[in-house]
Each structure stands twice: as C-alpha cells, then as structure tokens.
Design goal:
This protein is of the alpha/beta class. It contains nine helices and ten strands. A five-stranded mixed sheet has the order 5-7-8-10-9, with helices on one face. It has a three-stranded parallel sheet with strand order 1-2-3, sandwiched between helices. A hairpin with a 3-residue loop joins strand 7 and strand 8. The radius of gyration is 45 Å and the shape is rod-shaped. It binds adenosine-5'-triphosphate (ATP) and magnesium ion. Magnesium ion binds next to helix 8.
Length: about 375
Amino acid sequence: MAVFEDGPWEVTSCTNGSSALEVMRDRGVDILLTDKNLPDVNGLELMAEAKRINPLAEAILITAYASLESAISALELDAFDYVLKPLNNVFEIRKKIERAADKQRIAEENVALMKDLELRNSELQVTLMETKRLQAGLIQSEKLAGIGTLAAGIAHEISSPLFGVLGLAEAIGEEDDLSTIREYGEEIVTYAKSIREIVLGLSNYSRVSKREYFSNVSLLKCVNSAVQLIGRGEASQGVEINIDIPESASCNAQPNELQQIFVNLIRNGCEAALDAYPDGGAVVAVHCEESESGTLIKVVDNGVGVPPENHRSVFDPFFTTKEPGKGTGLGLNIVYRLLTKFGATVSLDSVPGLTTFSVVFPRDKE
Ligand SMILES: Nc1ncnc2c1ncn2[C@@H]1O[C@H](COP(=O)(O)OP(=O)(O)OP(=O)(O)O)[C@@H](O)[C@H]1O
Ligand SMILES: [Mg+2]
C-alpha cells in the first residue's frame, strides 16, 4: 500500500468488508478499491454504501477474470473501473485511482457549477418578477396619465362654450331689449348644444369618428362663429381680426370639432399678438386658399413667434409657455388630434413678428 500513500489523499486499508463499512461511515469515502468477493460483506454492497455516504464516490472493483464480461459487469455495477488479480502492477492501480480522483473532481466542479447556476437562475427569477411588477405598475400609471389627459382635454374643450354661456347669461341680466335677449338666448342654446356634443362624443373618444358624422361645413361660417366665441372672453380684446375666406370654401368635418380647431388657433394667435402689442397693433388674420390638392387655411399673427426649439413640442399635450394657471397646453394637441381625425394636417412657420399655422384639408378623393 506504500505506493498509494504519497498521493494527495489519505488511505485506509481494511482486511474485511465490515471494517471497511465502519471506516466509510465513520470518516467518509471518496474512492473505494474493493474486491468483488469479500469473505463477509459483498463488494457490491460496499459500493452501494459508499455511494449512499458520498454520491460522488468512485469505486474500482478488483476481479479475478480478465474477460470482457467481467469488465462489462463491473461497469454495470456502477464501478468506475476494474483491476485484475493478482495485484502485481501497483502503478497501473495508482493510475486508475488518479483517473477516478480526476473524474470525481470534475463531478464536484459540475455540482458546484450547477448550484451556482441554480442560484443565478433563482436570482433571475426574482429580477424577472420584480420587472413584471414594475411593468404592471408602469402600465397602470400610463393608463392613469391617459385618463388625466382625457379629462383635462374635455375640460379644455368645454371651457370655451361654457365661457360663452356664462357671458351671455350675465349680459341678459343687464339687457332690456327683448330682441337682443332673444338673440343671446339663441346663442346660449348653440353653445349648450356644443357642450352636449362634446360630452356625447366622449363615448367615441378613442375611436376615429365615422365619416357618416362628417358634413360639408362652411369655413367662413365656422371661423366667424369661432371668432364670436373668442370675443366672449378677454383673449381677443384689442386685437384686429381679419378674415378672408371665400363663401364657397368648405370642408368635410364634424362642425363642432372644426370650430374648436379655429377657436384654439385664433385664440393662441390673439394671445401671442397681444403679448407683443399690448397697447394696440395686435393683428390676427385667417386666409383661405383653394387649390387642386385641397383647401389651405392659414391663421397668421404678428406676435412674438415660436422659437425653433419649440416647433415640435407645441403640439404635445401639456406643453405650454404660459404662466402656471394661465394655459393648460392642450389647445394645439386638441387641434392636432381632431385634424388627424379629419385626414387633415397642420404645420407651423414662425419668425418673430410672423407666425403661421397652416391647416390643409386634402381634396376628397371619392
Ligand atoms: N400663435 C402662437 N404664437 C406663439 N406661440 C404659440 C402660438 N400658438 C401656440 N404657441 C405656443 O405653443 C404653446 C402651446 O399652445 P397650446 O394652445 O397647446 O397651449 P396654451 O395656449 O399654452 O394653453 P391653453 O390652450 O390651454 O390656453 C403655447 O404655450 C405657446 O408657447
Ligand atoms: Mg392655446
């Protein structure tokens, strides 16, 4: 046994099976070198016990016959290798033990790797669950933000006609002339109807309007009523508003929504022009040109203009340069949204003193 004892292992030799069992149970086992036929305990039982004590234990079986059959049966018995009696070539045995030790080391490394992999896997599972939870939270907050935008948009759309109703109702209180009162009353009904349509339109908010709801709207009438509505507030006071639209000009749209578009564009123009000319000289003009490709309406003002870095953002919801409490930043977003629904486009050209919002209704192909 001396030839084994100078290796990186501790060797215990036993004279029979039962003392080997005792040693293995007492001190553990890595490699078992055993005769198949022991006087007391069977060599195979020893092997099984070694595997029970250490699942990675390797066994080398000593057999008497150098036959293929004995080799196969040793391997079938889950032995790593076998050596033949008589045991005269100890160096060969040592080599086999070294190979068994190598195999065991690799198996141990594999087990450690597997454990590491399992650990990483469970860490990944935790990360995945956390990501899913965060994602669900994000979706929820995006939905809430969407509802917020929707609610603010509706409030913005309703505020113009509501302002008209309030102004007219107050004016009626101070008016004695019956025909003027009637006129105001009719206007109140018109504004109230447009509020009703906005509320009714809520249920279709996310859907694209069906073309059946569109009608041929006179642009001149629409712009005039938008200016009239703006005139009920303070936004246009002191602003010269020039309208140059042929009576024949029309487009296919939902009348109330078209009016909202012009209310927003003209009111923005008035506000910008008044900022530049608070004491007179503020001008807003609305032109219309009809061409082969469609109808072009321009809302122009002589205000301070939109700086180039804001050109893209002005149509974003909640983008505003007004003081807190003054603007919602929804006007142009509503304009953009509604025009897209009508298949129309809007673009902006601006230098200080001349800002133009151009709306194009392409000619109906049908
Ligand atoms: N004609 C214009 N001239 C200069 N800047 C403009 C003009 N129209 C829009 N803007 C800029 O675009 C921003 C967004 O306009 P939008 O109509 O969407 O919101 P708002 O006018 O700020 O708020 P609200 O419409 O609720 O009063 C404005 O704050 C302003 O900075
Ligand atoms: Mg606005």
